[in-house]
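TICKET: design request
STATUS: open
ATTACHED STRUCTURE:
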């Protein structure tokens, strides 16, 4: 949860809250959200409801994503949230989830970028959006990214200041659902390899370019947003206590990502749980997220990835404030 107020051409965060709830952990096996996952999520949403009330929030958007889209008991879960917390959540479509991730990460786009791949690794799904900004004037690249609205009916045709979505995909595999698929595999390294192979097979429909030439890769900027990416970034920096101000916007080389993931594998499950940079809440899910990230960086070998401690929530804030006219021509 993020509560913010517009300030110039950006926004200032007033309050924030984040809690891993592992809502989709049993979804792959049962097709439904588990009672324990629902209970953890409702408890976290009680905290959000209190903060929204105490801060006097006037305008809000509250969304649910892939786990609730797929779950047989998703609508029942929405009803329980309504009755127990008073919050009204909206289950958004995959294309809206992808659009909001792009909007949230747009401020991290560099003037040098010609192609941008935004990766959003969630609990139940992973979104990839490839945007061509090679025809966009440098000062307009961020604004162009914010105005794009990816959708399969508009693939490759929708434009904003010369930018266009070349391709996008929502893969119904995230850190929780991918982990659950291989929960019966005990060997840590084998489980990691199986998760990576299965995720790669799920990317068959995503083919933004057949051309993997050096010139295309030279102009490619990859932006990754998720707890997986920020955790790998923090461990790469050697942080014992997470600091968003240091991690958000940092750049890692692809070999740096591989080095951290190798470190995770050497630690093993018990070592990862004891590692301060990972934390007990995220230790169970970090390897499925790492398998997703490493697979993407192997298929599209950009030299660097930019870490975004931002995404869906920031995208919602930018969109709402822009709709309200908070970001005028002079801001």
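STATUS: resolved
RESOLUTION: sequence designed for all positions
ATTACHED SEQUENCE:
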């Amino acid at each position: 949860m993020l509560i913010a107020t517009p300030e110039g051409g950006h926004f200032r965060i007033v309050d924030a809250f984040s809690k891993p709830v592992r809502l989709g952990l049993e979804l792959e096996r049962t097709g439904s959200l588990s009672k324990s996952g629902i209970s953890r999520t409702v408890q976290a949403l009680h905290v959000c409801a209190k903060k929204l009330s105490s801060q006097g929030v006037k305008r809000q958007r509250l969304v649910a994503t892939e786990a609730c889209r797929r779950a047989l008991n998703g609508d029942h879960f929405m009803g329980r949230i309504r009755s127990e917390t008073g919050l009204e959540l909206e289950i958004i479509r995959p294309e809206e989830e992808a659009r909001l991730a792009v909007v949230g990460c747009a401020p991290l786009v560099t003037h040098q970028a010609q192609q941008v791949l935004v990766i959003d690794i969630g609990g139940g799904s992973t979104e990839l959006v490839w945007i061509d900004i090679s025809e966009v004037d440098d000062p307009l690249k961020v604004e162009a990214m914010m105005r794009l609205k990816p959708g399969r009916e508009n693939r490759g045709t929708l434009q904003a200041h010369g930018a266009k979505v070349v391709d996008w995909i929502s893969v119904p595999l995230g850190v929780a659902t991918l982990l659950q698929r291989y929960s019966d595999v005990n060997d840590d390294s084998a489980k990691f390899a199986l998760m990576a192979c299965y995720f790669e097979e799920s990317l068959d429909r995503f083919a933004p370019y057949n051309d993997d030439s050096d010139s295309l890769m030279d102009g490619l900027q990859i932006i990754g947003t998720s707890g997986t990416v920020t955790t790998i970034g923090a461990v790469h920096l050697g942080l014992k206590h997470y600091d968003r101000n240091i991690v958000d916007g940092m750049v890692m080389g692809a070999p740096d990502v591989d080095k951290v993931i190798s470190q995770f594998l050497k630690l093993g499950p018990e070592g990862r749980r004891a590692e301060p940079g990972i934390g007990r809440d995220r230790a169970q899910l970090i390897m499925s997220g790492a398998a997703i990230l490493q697979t993407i960086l192997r298929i599209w070998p950009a030299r660097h990835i930019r870490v975004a401690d931002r995404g869906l929530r920031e995208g919602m804030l930018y969109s709402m404030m822009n709709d309200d006219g908070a970001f005028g021509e002079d801001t």
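CLOSING REMARK: Residues 105-314 form a domain with the Nucleotidyltransferase; domain 5 fold (CATH 3.30.420.150). The chain has two domains: 2-94, 105-314.
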